[in-house]
Amino acid sequence: MAKKHILMMQTFIKVMLGFKQEIEAVTPDSYYPSIYKIDYQILKKENIDTLLFDIDNTITKVDDLNIPKETIELIRNLKEQKFKILLFSNNHEQRAKPVAQKLNLPVLSDAGKPTKEAYEKALNILNSNKENTVAIGDQLLSDIVGAKKYGIKAILVDQLSKENNVQTGMAQKLQKHMIKQLKKYKQFQIGKYYISENKTN
Question: For 53-63, what is each residue's pLDDT tens digit?
Fold first, then answer.
């Protein structure tokens, strides 16, 4: 079993058993309906200059090479605001590279999230530091926990589609069970959006 899968399963089990540290680690700093609803000006004010975007069900639907026009426009706008952007995906190069080419962005495929090494590689590509970086994605067990354990701000967005591939499907099944547990702890609830310091339970 790959290291990333071992880490995901360990996190899942600890959350289900009520380990406080793991519960905090899977709880996003902010939660928005989509990448289009994120207040990037707030991030600028927080001295964030680097954005790590997941691809599948964050930037575009799973295994879909059609990039929504609003995504193209958003990325263009973020570039104009001088954000450094990386597409950061656990999916293979054949999937991730065409998306990156269409958006004219650098990409790290087969990244290995949530491992520490994945985030180190991502920051090295952009010559960024974790204090000025935010990771954005739809998966608690890869996008969120990996970033937070490495000291990077983490933003969760809702899935663009309910469609999944083998990899994302398993993670989503675990996530559904975990979210029920987080709701019980009054830690996190799907559809209850919040921004960092304005989080309410």
Answer: 999 999 999 88
